[in-house]
Structures are given as structure tokens and as C-alpha cells.
Amino acid sequence: MKRLALTITLALICVILACPVWAITPAQILARIKAAEAPLKDVKAEMAITSANKGNISDMGAGYADIVGLEKGIISYKKPDKFRMDGYARGIKASLVQNGYRKLVLAAMIRQTEDVKDKPGKRFNSLDIGFLSSRLWLENTVTIVGSAKGSTVELRLVPKSGGKDKRHDNIWLDVATLKPLKREKYLGSGAMRIRYVYTDFEMLAGKLPIATTSTMYNPSGEKMGTVTYKNVKANVGLADSLFSMTQR
Q1: Total number of domains in the chain
Q2: Does residue 219 surpass a pLDDT of 50?
């Protein structure tokens, strides 16, 4: 009888160990994000970017350079897919606007538009300004690929559009709080391009956390810069015209 009990106990332990340590699915995480973002309509905040190594910016690609190029300014977001950054790059006033998959750059005598649907490396999403959104699930195939201590899981986001561009992001998420803790962006070759570490959270519309500090590191672990937000305000009534692709 003791031998039977021991066998059953060992079998149960094996079953437990064989099961993933995370007990949540991407669909369940999405449902929680939808509930948390429901009261949120838009976000506006003051942004400051400090670069620890300006010499590395040119090696990081267009999407990274767009963000780090703005040394200070205003970040605006309107649900579900409108983004705007207004500020100064090397002393010149500049604006970066993304509306859906259309992107607009305005600076001095420059006006450039681009379709970035098949260029995921050039697209902005809510993680670029420090929070999760259901739009990430719409644009990416999301899977759980690992877990860490406590309630932290590792998600992989693979763009649904992008042609031969096989890049992906890995996100470390605290599923208990919906705080994104870390993000790693990988090229199609599998090489890591950049790492973000998110800290200093505030709540958007009382339910959705946003990191007000994002610290960026290169593949060698060297600090590249820090993005910080202050005066973060939600539901300020941003007009659609702010994100228009026809403005000059």
C-alpha cells in the first residue's frame, strides 16, 4: 500500500512538473488588457530623451533613430492606432505621426509619408510609449514562450504582416499587474537589436499601467539612452486632425 501511495505521489509530481508553470493563455491576457484599456481614449505626456551613446544611434535603424532623434517634446496617442511625437531634433522642430499603417515625418522643409504595414521595424506601437494594448494582438501572433519568477511570463510577438521580414519582439509581462517589464527586439536573423527595461509606472484611466521610464540597451548590454515621461494625462480629448496624414 505504501509503495502504491508513493507511486501515485511521484506520478502526480511528474504531471505537475510536465505542465507549464504559467497558468494563463495569450487570449486570457488579451481579455484582461481589453478590460483595462476600455476607459482609455487617449494619452498625452511630456517626453525627454537622453542618449548615453549618440554614436550608436545610426546603427540601430530608422525606427530607433526616429525616437532617439527627438531630444524632448510631446507624445500623443489616440486609441487604437494613432501616434504622434512633437519635439526638437538637433535644434530643429520635428513631428512624427503614425495613423494606422501610414507614417508622416514633418521637419523644416521636409514632408515625407510612408506606408509601414510591411515594415514592422519602422512601425510604432503602444510598447514604444510604455504600455500594452489590444492592438498588439491584432498586429501580431502572440505566444507564451517562457516564465520567470512569480507572475512574470515571457511573450513572443511575431508581426502578421511584413513579408520576408521575420523579426519579432519578446516581452516580459507581469500578468498580475499588466506591467510590461522588459522588451527585446530581434532581427529576422535572430540577432537581438535592442532591449528596453520599463520602470516607474503610473496608471492610465485608473486601470492600465504605463512605464514613465524606459531605459534602452544595445545587444552588448551597454546603456544607449533613457526615455522619461512626466505630466502623463489620459482622456484629454485629442482631435483626429492631430494625426492627419494631409497636414503640413
Answers
A1: 1
A2: yes
Q: Is residue 241 part of a domain?
A: no
Backbone torsion region of residue 231, taken as left when φ is above 0, otherwise alpha when ψ lies between -120 and 50, otherwise beta: left
- Cβ proximity of 172 and 148 under 8 Å: yes
Tell me what pLDDT residue 60 has: 39
Does a structural domain hold residue 217? Answer: yes
CATH of the domain at 192: 2.50.20.10
Q: Distance between CA atoms of 138 and 133, rounded to whole angstroms?
A: 10
Output the DSSP codes for the chain: -HHHHHHHHHHHHHHHHHS-S----HHHHHHHHHHHHTT--EEEEEEEEEES-GGGGGGS-HHHHHHHH--EEEEEEETTTEEEEEEEETTEEEEEEEETTEEEEEETTEEEEEE-TT-GGG---GGGGT---THHHHHEEEEEEEE-STTEEEEEEEES--TT---EEEEEEETTTTEEEEEEEE-TTS-EEEEEEEEEEEEETTTEEEEEEEEEE-TTS-EEEEEEEEEEEE-----GGGG-SS--
Is residue 242 pLDDT above 80, yes or no?
yes
Q: What is the pTM of this model?
A: 0.83
Closest residue by Cα to residue 131 from 221, 213, 52, 192: 213
245 domain residue, yes or no: no
State which residues form the domain around 104.
22-236
Give a yes or no: residue 2 inside a domain: no
Compute the CA torsion angle 154, 228, 177, 22 (nearest 10 deg): 10
